[in-house]
Design a protein that fits this description.
The chain has 107 residues and is mostly helical. It is built from five helices and no strands.
Length: 107
């Protein structure tokens, strides 16, 4: 991901590296089945709050999350494509739910 100081003409199009660095281990623990949905939702809430503060659209948040997930060794270890897609879809869906819940309204 680009640095926090890079942005488009309308502002940043990605979450801050600091927030991503905090979210990454929570997702890794979740994928390793070492944490609960609550810990995952809390981490994704932080990501959504950062996205909201930067006025990121849901699509921009999803792109950033998919990049993060694609870079994780835990995701790459999932051999079956269908299972990898199912896990990705679950995490993206949870993130979107948290994003819109955080905003308190549809954007």
């Amino acid at each position: 991901m680009a640095s926090d100081h890079e942005s488009s003409a309308t502002g940043p199009t990605h979450p801050s590296e600091i927030v991503v660095a905090r979210v990454r281990p929570a997702i890794q623990r979740y994928l390793a089945r070492e944490s609960t949905d609550v810990e995952l939702r809390t981490a994704l809430h932080d990501l959504a709050r950062d996205a909201e503060a930067k006025s990121l659209r849901a699509e921009e948040l999803v792109v950033a999350l998919k990049k993060l997930l694609g870079d994780l060794p835990e995701m790459q270890k999932i051999r079956e494509r269908a299972e990898r897609e199912r896990v990705m879809a679950r995490l993206v869906s949870t993130c979107i739910d948290v994003y819109y819940d955080r905003a308190g309204r549809a954007r």
